[in-house]
């Protein structure tokens, strides 16, 4: 998904459990971003494919 959090845009996977909502990167180098209680969190779109050259 394409998400907006604290003035920044991200392309991440969204994970929702009973305890938390977070954005997860496919690259494990990046830590999850907690968004459950963040009023600036917005879903801007869904990624449906990729382009490569």
UniProtKB/TrEMBL annotation:
Q: Sorted alphabetically, which InterPro entries does this protein's record hold? A: LexA/Signal_pep-like_sf, Peptidase_S24_S26A/B/C
UniProt-listed Gene3D superfamilies: Umud Fragment, subunit A
Source organism (scientific name): Lentilactobacillus diolivorans DSM 14421
Name the chain's protein: Peptidase S24/S26A/S26B/S26C domain-containing protein
* SUPFAM superfamilies in alphabetical order: LexA/Signal peptidase
Q: What is the lineage of its organism?
A: Bacteria, Bacillati, Bacillota, Bacilli, Lactobacillales
Peptidase S24/S26A/S26B/S26C domain segment(s): 2-48
Superkingdom as given in the UniProt entry: Bacteria
């Amino acid at each position: 998904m394409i998400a907006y959090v604290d003035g920044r845009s991200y392309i991440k996977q969204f994970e929702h459990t009973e305890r938390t909502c977070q954005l997860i990167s496919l690259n494990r180098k990046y830590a999850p971003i907690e968004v459950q209680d963040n009023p600036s969190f917005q879903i801007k779109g869904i990624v449906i494919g990729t382009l490569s050259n």
